[in-house]
Amino acid sequence: MRASGLPARATTLDNILNIPYNGTRRTRNNTGEGHPQNPKYTYKDRWHYDNRVKEYNHRINQAHKLNRKHSNDTTRSLLRATIRTAREGKKKIKTEKCLKWCGSMNSHTTQSDVWNKINIACGNRRPKTPTHPTPTRDTENLIRAFLSRNNSDQLPVEFQNLLKRNQNNYDQLIHEACNVNFTSRELQDTLCSKPDTSAGADKITYSMI
After folding, report:
1. Is 190 contained in some domain?
2. Closest residue by Cα to residue 11 from 21, 26, 22, 24
3. 189 and 118 fall within a common domain
4. Quick one: the chain helix, strand, coil %, rounded to 5?
5. At what angle do helices 73-103 and 51-69 cross, to 10 degrees?
6. Nearest to 45 by CA among 141, 131, 122
7. Please, are residues 86 and 56 in contact by the beta-carbon 8 Å criterion?
């Protein structure tokens, strides 16, 4: 018997996992934010929709509500004026978005990209959801976290002093390590008759190549 006020499916799952219902609901919400999915429906004005379009739609809805509540010549005139203003404003927004998109095209733009944009503008194709909602911001946060955790200022004072003293010798040490001569023993070890040698009389192994 399920608890009152809770869906049967959620109650069964919570009993199995022994987790409160609100905890599983938060987990599902966080999962949806971390892995965005395409909606089941697509609006045709998605390609130019922004806060300005949202404000125009809000004003039209308010005018419709006012006209339904008080239907007279004044409210009808207000509704027509609101719709006319919204259409003119949306037309400017569409022109702005279209010019911005056309300005982003160059000689490297493929024909498939052009048709994808056209289909999205016509409402025939659902735009792809990015793999992550904010990849640039999260990447920069990871870089800053990595740099802060690997900063030499976190080391003890004696190690910091040692690093400062050896800082000038790093280039010289790297140059010497890269230009050290091979020993005769190392050369003899590379010349062998194992089956992994390259073709020819020199018998040089593939690892040396």
Report:
1. yes
2. 21
3. no
4. 65, 0, 35
5. 170
6. 122
7. yes
Q: Are 96 and 115 in contact (CB under 8 A)?
A: no
Q: Which of 47-56, 61-70, 103-112, 120-129 has the highest mean pLDDT?
A: 61-70
Looking at residue 50, the DSSP 8-state letter turns out to be -
111 shares its domain with 160: no
| Residues paired with residue 191 on neighbouring β-strands, in sequence order | 204
Contacts of 65 (CB under 8 A, 6+ apart): none
What pTM did the predictor assign? Answer: 0.40
pLDDT tens per residue across span 109-120: 888 888 887 777
Helix (H) or strand (E) holding 51: helix 51-69
Q: Which domain holds residue 163?
A: 155-209
Q: Which amino acid is at 57?
A: N
Using CB atoms within 10 Å of the CB of residue 14, give its burial: 0 to 12 exposed, 13 to 18 middle, 19+ buried.
Answer: buried
Residue 91 within any structural domain of the chain: yes
